[in-house]
Amino acid sequence: MKTVFITGGRGFVGRNLAEKLDELGYRVLAPSSSELDLLDQNAVDRYFDSHPVDIIIHAANKGGGRDTIGMTDVVHSNLRMFFNVVRHSDKVEKIIHFGSGAEYGKHRPIVMVGEDEADNVLPLDDYGFYKSVCSRYIAHSGRNIVNFRIFACYGKYEDYRYKFISNAIVKNLLGLPITIRQNVNFDYVYIDDLVRMVVWAMQSTPAHRVYNLTRGTGIDLLTLAGLVNLVSDRPSEIVVDTPGLNHEYTSSNSRILAECPVDFMPHSTAIARLYDYYARNSGCLDLDAVRRDAFIDNIRVTGQQ
Q1: In whole angstroms, how far apart are CA 232 and each of 177, 188, 225, 242, 268?
Q2: Deepest in the core among 50, 57, 178, 215, taking most CB within 10 A?
Q3: What pLDDT, in 10s, does the model give residues 22-50?
């Protein structure tokens, strides 16, 4: 039985991964931040000294979300966590790190970009810049690390207060309108498909250091809201604040598909599954937060969907 150490194991991607890897028979170590402070080099060193690990999945982040707007020290904190972890690469088979489409610079349209195009720009925002630094280190370090750039992912355990698809589903369940600040094409991938690609990387020897971990096609928010309404017995009103399209955010995934062919779940099927999940678990949700609509307040302030 192999042991997998997951940072950020209580977050959206980490929690889904931990759940699936446990089902597959891996021994999963996913300490919370209170159990292991990744900013503390000595604590991280002691942890690896006392916990033999085969594979590291680094999914921990500070910032980068709508619930962390205004967070300071994003670059320093995240880089310290990253290097505290990767300095132990010689003790493990491989490290899988999660990068971001933000590495391509979200101040401009990002349209079907290939992995090498990220070298042409430095992101202007702190989060994208930190991810870019990690990616460039991985690409040239000679270490056993793979960087998976996530553009947009959805599924259970994401923050439904701020994430568009889950937020739209919960609003529909409450009989509320679905609000879009401005329509935009995103490269959304369902969490189950993302997890399958990560498992492939764990069980194989990837030929490259950096991959876009995406579906490789865009879908706009109006279409996604329509798919939510198709699942529902009571369609929501869809409100668009600003006409036109905002900056596209899509990528080419030809590099990973050449090694790991994926039969992606149709968005209609994935949204139906996610709708059922929220319908069954509505009693565990902070419905008042959704009614207060922190999601649309946030995007109207930040200008980002």
Answers
A1: 13, 21, 11, 25, 12
A2: 57
A3: 999 999 999 999 999 999 999 999 999 99
